[in-house]
Fold this sequence. Notes:
Layout: E1 4-12, E2 21-28, H1 36-46, E3 51-55, E4 64-69, E5 74-75, H2 79-88, H3 92-107, E6 114-119, E7 122-129, E8 134-138, E9 144-145, H4 152-158, E10 177-181, E11 184-190, H5 194-197, E12 217-225, E13 234-243, E14 247-249, H6 253-267, E15 273-280, E16 288-296, E17 303-310, E18 312-321
Parallel strand pairs: 2-3, 4-6, 11-12, 13-15
Antiparallel strand pairs: 1-2, 1-18, 3-4, 4-5, 6-7, 7-8, 8-17, 9-10, 10-11, 12-13, 13-14, 15-16, 16-17
Amino acid sequence: MTTTLSFATVDVFTPTRFTGNPLAIVNIRKEIPLSQQTKQKIAREFNLSETVFLHEDDGSGKGRRFDIFTINEELPFAERARRKMWLTSQGHPTIGTLYWIGSQSNVQGQNIQNIKLLCKAGLIDAKYDHDTNIAMAKIPHDVHIHNTGVSLEAVLKSQPRLEDNLYVENEFSGYPIVSPVKGMQFVLIRLKDLKRSLPRIQLSHVPVHQMEAGAGFVAPYFYVMYDHETKPGWTRIESRMVEPEIGEDPATGSAACALTCYLALQHKLPGKKFTYDIKQGADMGRESHIGVEVTIDATGGVIEKVVLSGTAVVVSQGTMTV
Length: 322
């Protein structure tokens, strides 16, 4: 027996079609449960980095379930997928799904503002602003700044074209390695100049850093700090995330959270809230804008709250036969 399912594709972290990070969303009705095998086939058919299967609200108030599939597997079951979980579930699949739920509720006259999503990584509390079309998600975190960093020499072995373009803040400690959660590491590499630095980054098969076996995913996150604000109180950053196994990512929510938490902690200001606007993906023709709000606790040395935000835009809608 065949049946039809509705779907949409959205570009995430952008208001402009054909930029940002693309995502497919398949709506699953209660009366039509799909097998894992069928979901995997659908994800392969879309052939995007991730496809979300959004289950109908069961009315329990526990959160709307959504499953995230790559073209190879569901996250976070496989070992390789577990290493990628934060790279994906805390980024464009979450913001894209929230945007879809919020914008569709507007079309249906419900105007849902508070949203709970339930994924394999746990419950995500979120909001959707109907005036700005911005989705905001409170991100689970366990931020850790590693004791040892990555040397200038190691970075240049991976990215030789960046010579004379690297910003050396502390030659002794090197470039910091920051984990937003256990098993996910980003090497934060600050560059001097926007126009000369970011375009020089290339896909390299020489890793910037090798973690110990079993330590999880590690990737470099290159960034430039602007010396002026785009909005009052917002720090503006431009970045690129290039990793041998994944390639270049147009918008990396987990890396953005790692970077902004690190920057906020450097201020050592108890109870302070910091806001960041990160532009990513421009060099690959898929410009994205990631918003992150970081709140420091009363001690000044611990992250209290991280909120990831962004908008999206619908590219296509239709039905499929399964």
